[in-house]
Amino acid sequence: MKPSLLVLAAGIGSRYGGFKQIDPIGPNGEVLLDYAIYDARKAGFGKIVFVITRALEKGLKDYIRGKYGNSLEVEFVFQDMDKIPAGYSVPADRKKPWGTGHAVLVAKEALREPFGVINADDYYGSTSYQVLADFLKKIDPNSRQMTLVGFAIENTLSDNGTVSRGVCTIEKGKLVSIVEREKIRQEGDSICHQTEDGTKLIIPQGTLVSMNLWGFAPGVLFPWFEKQFEQFMKSRGTELKSEFYLPSAVDAGIRAGEMTVEVLSSKESWFGLTYNEDKPVVREHILRKIKAAVYPGNLFA
After folding, report:
1. Max Cα–Cα distance, the chain, nearest Å
2. CATH second-level architecture of 4-291?
3. Cα-Cα end-to-end distance for the chain
4. Angle between helices 246-255 and 218-236 (to 10 degrees)
5. Residue 112: per-residue pLDDT
6. How far is Cα 144 from Cα 162, in angstroms, rounded to an integer?
7. What pLDDT sits at residue 200?
8. Under 8 Å between Cβ of 148 and 264
9. For the chain, which terminal residue's Cβ has fewer other Cβ atoms within 10 angstroms, N or C?
10. Whole-angstrom distance, CA of residue 114 vs CA of residue 215
11. What band does 168 get if pLDDT is binned at 50, 70 and 90?
12. Where are the domains of the chain?
């Protein structure tokens, strides 16, 4: 059974200024997603499931079908705000989706096999997909064993602004906890994050962080996420900007003994499209990969 890949592509790109999911990056009009698909298929992933919004539907579907035709097994699911537990309602003035945990949950009906999760606007590197695929090929759909492919924090920073990262605590190769840290940036030789009260704290180099490169077994994960999302709606569902985060739901599962998460380490350098100013940097990274023969000059030649 080939593992599937779930691509979180419903972001509205407010900081980027447009739909970065289909913004050309490669020398022949390739988008960043094309390199993820190339790496995933090479590593042994089968079906690709995209979580999208209605606003992006036509653009992304047209792009994927135009580039891949019938050569790619693909499914699209929508992260609609009204996909919530019975008895709850969407606040009238809410405009944001419910977050990455909800994005995973809406794909429940499309996934029966172990699956990986990625962000559509992130580059993880070919070896990262291989490490993830090798793990997923060994587990059962009902396994309690999940995985996270972590990146050294110094390999995940942006030159164009601060970032948020899920900082991992690991013991004997297992994830103990994951805590979201905001406003992280390089300052001289140090990597700092700023707390809510303005205090700056140093994060040591080599600290593994989550870039939302996960591996899950659906039989355990989805029932747990359903339970957690209902609790979230009960406590925070009336808030206009609250989000049900994937790392928080996993963290709760670890603490409750519902799952264990093996942490695998990637030696790759992450890069991605957070700000529009990132685009030329990402293009340069891709050109370097092509020159190093990691990718062909034209993915669709």
Report:
1. 55
2. Alpha-Beta Complex (3.90)
3. 29
4. 110
5. 97
6. 35
7. 85
8. yes
9. C
10. 7
11. very high
12. 4-291
